Amino acid sequence: MVAAALAGGWTVVLAVLLQAVGWSVEQLQVAAGWDRQAWLWPALSLATAVAVGLPALLLALLPRSPRVRATGRGWLGAALALIALGSLWALPQVHHELYLAALAGTATLLALLTTRLSGPPATATASPPATTTTPPAAADRARRPRAVTLLAIAAGLALLLPWVRFGALGGLLETVLAALAATAVGLLAGALLGDRFWSPFTGDGPPRAARTVLVGGLVAGVVLLLVVAGAGHSGAQLPALLFVPPVGFVLGACQVAARRAGAPAGSAPVRWLVGLAVFGPLALTDPEEISILLATTRDVPYWVAVASGVGLAVAVVLAIGYGVLLGRPRGRTPSRLVAASSAAVLLLTVGVVDVAAGQPGLYGERLLVVLREQADLSGIPAGTPGRAGRDARTAEVYRRLVATAERTQGALRRDLTRLRLDPTPYYLVNAIETDGGPAVRAWLSARPEVARVLVSQRLRPLPAPAPVSGGDRPAPTGPEWNIRMLGADRVWAELGVTGSGVVIGSSDSGVDGTHPTLAAGFRGGDDSWYDPWDHTRSPTDSGGHGTHTTASAVGRDGIGVAPGAQWVGCVNLDRNLGSPAHYLDCLQFMLAPFPAGGDPFTDGRPERAPDVLTNSWGCPPVEGCDPGALRPATAALTAAGILVVAAAGNTGPDCGSVVDPPAPYPDVLTVGAVGRDRAVTEFSSRGPAPGGAAKPDLVAPGAEILSAMPGGGYAAEDGTSMATPQVAGVVALMWSANPALVGDLDRTRSILRDTAQPAGPADLSCGPVAASTGAGLVDAYAAVRAARR
């Protein structure tokens, strides 16, 4: 018994610890921009099963006590199941539906195998003689759910309530597959915790209630811990580790009540209770969103933690309540009518909570279908120098892109519309976003006109809006240190250039258009703001990232490099996550702005395109992008004479860490970060880019950069995100000083490189400085003087 207690404690600590460590390591990989290691979770699951299974095997074979042997068998079976379930995490999170289908199939097979190997319970009730006939009324009663099963259903619905309140469903197929997976996990738990498991704890005579509830419930809780450790993609299984194991005591109380009624409970209570409990995190959370990328505000990780805490409280109350009401030696089991009424009331409560206080509806991922044929943009004439020539090129690029999309998308768009898959066409990349799961994706991938199909992530709604990110720093009293390092203040004072006449486009989390440092710089009109996420009609920002970066480019009062330039904005990040389609929404808007509610294909105004784009974001695989997802988009913008400036990323100091589009693309001006000491920061991503290209192209100040935040405040932030808009601001100064340079991207790049100052790299382990840390630190004063020549 002592050995069993020690083994149980070892099992709980080890399983929880390894699950937490595995998720943390995977999240660090995401944050660092490393490739996901598919072997991590199978290896951890195998390690857990070996470390737990060995003592469980000894307990199953060596002791004489039937209860200890039953304990060992239960833990060993659950540990072996964890190996199979944990191996499914090798599937990428972005393919969640495929994972749920695999979980449903694997758990069902394990349940069937476990049932077959277990055999009948040791105290199985003898079958009636063959000559005995059962009256029809009795047979009908036998087919009805027993009271203990109905009470287990009620308990499962109670555990589902927090997830209905704080979570949100995915798509229809995803929800159906989650239900099948939860059912299969319930079947597996029922096979492991059937009558054979409970028989040694209840005995042959009158049930020993305390032993069944406390000891049997504790052992069953450890079994459930191991089962749910493998039920849910990386991150989604963590909540279940908290609130499912306590229901072992509920199951023990159900066993006491059933035995008191004269027959074992069977596996039905286990199947229903566990299945309903795990359906919550499986169906009402997206494992991609249980991420440290969203952990800085009240986003999905926060609400998952809240649901888990409430679920734990509910589980504890259920364990105590069921133990007191059902688990007493002379307790009274509620009638079937009372039990059915309880289950019905809780089912109704789940529905009411979902509609009245939850997030009803379906919020599945969409697909981005990239077509094989992309527009031919070769041979576009340069035209006259300056804005007139740039505008002519932009108009011709827009015309060719739209014509190619209209000519090649027709058949596919008709088929998708006929299937009610809600297609949204794009022209900047010849692509269509549409609804659809794995089956639709396979069908689309097989079509001859389709190059590939990407998952376009869709965030699920929150139970309450995330708080607006404000700032706690005072307003600046003069040019900030980064402005002085670049020499932008000298450009204003000595050369009289502030960026007037140039428009910078910001694609980010949004912009607080009422901020004192930004309000005067907004271009205005009906085509200077676009929000494809929430469809706001005026510049707004709750995340703060976009306000901060835009102000570093054009903000007044000493924080922006080009305070005389104007800005236009677009929201491509919602709660710090994007998707290939929404990145395209904003880049497409920047090529040919259109009024609110307009059609990008017919209402675009290429003559209103901004001159320079600042992009402090990247599209990693977790958001659905592959390396070439946005390549046609930046190529088209470059052909139009619009300079695309992008952040290198914050995954340094690893070599070759400039990987997420659009930073690695050769036609993008990629920016790294330096600190006050002019040395490349530790976090700034290093080159070379895939293929060996030297990246980043330039570096700029990116540590402790003071800039604007929503609500009129200020804050200091770190990142290549902060460095990028400053380079866009320098380009605005150059083009304001010499309007003939507008659209001349080759000469602009050459001037920036030739006038850059040496930057001190943190290390040279990635090869030559030009390949690993950029050509140098941008010099605004020298660049503007060279632009005037």
Descriptive key words:
Rossmann fold, Peptidase_S8_subtilisin-rel, serine protease, 3 domains, seven-stranded parallel β-sheet, four-stranded antiparallel β-sheet, serine-type endopeptidase activity, 789 residues, elongated
What does the model show?
This protein is an alpha/beta fold and 789 residues long. The protein folds into three domains: 2-116 and 145-356, no CATH class; 366-456, no CATH class; 481-787, Peptidase S8/S53 domain (Rossmann fold), CATH 3.40.50. Helix content is 49%, strand content 8%. The strands form three sheets. A seven-stranded parallel sheet has the order 6-7-5-8-9-10-11, sandwiched between helices. Strands 2-3-1-4 form a four-stranded antiparallel sheet, with helices on both faces. Strand 12 (705-709) and strand 13 form a beta hairpin. The longest helix is centred in the middle third of the chain and has 32 residues, at 387-418. It is elongated, with a radius of gyration of 31 Å. The termini are far apart.
